[in-house]
C-alpha cells in the first residue's frame, strides 16, 4: 500500500512540475491518452447510434451525416489537446496559427453539412412542388455553398492571425467594380437570371412566344432551361433558341400555359355577302364540335366581326384543352371549313376588280 502511495506522490510531483521535462513528458502522454480514449468512446457511441437510427429508418443520409459528426468531434478534440500542449510547451506564438488552421479544416465538414441540409430540403420541398424553378435555386445554392463557407473561414482565420482583412475586402470591392464595368453584359444577364428565378414569369415546360425566332420558322416554343446567363427555348420546329436573360426582361413575355394549358383560339373566316350567314355559322360550329380536343363547355362560338370590302368577316372562337394544339386547331378547322363551304355552296370571297376599257377614236 505504501508503494502505491509513493508512486502516486511521484506522479503528482511530475504533473505539478511545470518546468521540468519529465513532468512535461508525462503530461503530454496523459493528454494524448485521454484524447485518444475519448475519441474511441465517442466513435463507438456514434456507431451504435447510427446503427439504431438505420433500423428505425429515420434518415436517408445516416452515413454522410455521422461521418461529418465524427470529423467535427475529431477536430474539436484536436483543438482542445493541441491548445493545451502548445501552452504546456510554452510555444504560445503558434497558438493563433494553430487555431486559424483548424478553422480552415473545420470549413470542410461545415460545407458538407450545409450541402446535406440543402439536399434534404430539395428532396422534401422542391421535388414535391410542381414548379421546377425551386430545383434551379437549390442547384445554384449547392454550387456556391462551398465557396461561401471557405471564404468566410479564410476571413475568420486571417482576422484571428491579426491580419487586417479590411484592405482585402476593399480591394475586392474595387476589383469587383472594375470587373463589373468590363463584363457589364454578363453581369446584367446574371442579375436578370436571378430576377427571372424570383419573379417566375415562366417555368421550365411552359410554352411561350419567341420573338427572335428565325424568319419563316415557328414563333413559339417550350422553355427547357433557365440558366443564370440565358434561357433556352425549344420551338415546335425542334429548334433551340438561346436568349440572353437581360433581353427577356426587357420584352413582353407571352406565356400560354402559366395559369393552365387551356386557351381560347380565334379563327377568322370570311364569306361572300351573297352567302347565307346562318348556314355558314352552323357549318362552322358543326366542324368545330368534331375536333376532339375542343372544350364542350364553354362551347364554340361564331361572331360577326366586320363588314369587309368584299366579305362578311366571321370569327370562330373555341377553347381547347392543350395550348400546344393551337396551330393544329387552326389548320384542321380551316381545312374542313373550306370543304364544307364548297359542298354547301358558300363562297369564300376574294377581292375583285372590274376593268372597263374605253376606246376613243381620235
Can you walk me through this structure?
The chain is an alpha+beta fold and 362 residues long. It has three domains: 2-174, no CATH class; 195-249, Roll (SH3 type barrels), CATH 2.30.30.60; 263-344, 2-Layer Sandwich (Alpha-Beta Plaits). Helices cover 57% and strands 13% of the residues. It contains ten helices and seven strands. The protein has helices at 2-16, 21-56, 62-88, 95-124, 133-160, 166-182, 184-199, 245-249, 277-290, 326-344; strands at residues 207-209, 220-226, 230-235, 240-244, 263-271, 301-307, 312-320. A four-stranded antiparallel β-sheet has the order 1-2-3-4. A hairpin with a 4-residue loop joins strand 6 and strand 7 (312-320). Helix 1 crosses helix 2 (21-56) and helix 3 packs antiparallel against helix 4 (95-124). The chain is elongated. The model has no long low-confidence stretch (mean pLDDT 78).
Note the beta-strand portion.
5-15%
What gyration radius follows from the Cα positions, in whole Å?
A: 38 Å
Written as H for each helix and E for each strand, in order along the chain, the element string is: HHHHHHHEEEEHEHEEH
End-to-end C-alpha gap:
157 Å
Shape: elongated
List the helices and strands and how they pair.
Layout: H1 2-16, H2 21-56, H3 62-88, H4 95-124, H5 133-160, H6 166-182, H7 184-199, E1 207-209, E2 220-226, E3 230-235, E4 240-244, H8 245-249, E5 263-271, H9 277-290, E6 301-307, E7 312-320, H10 326-344
Antiparallel strand pairs: 1-2, 2-3, 3-4, 5-7, 6-7
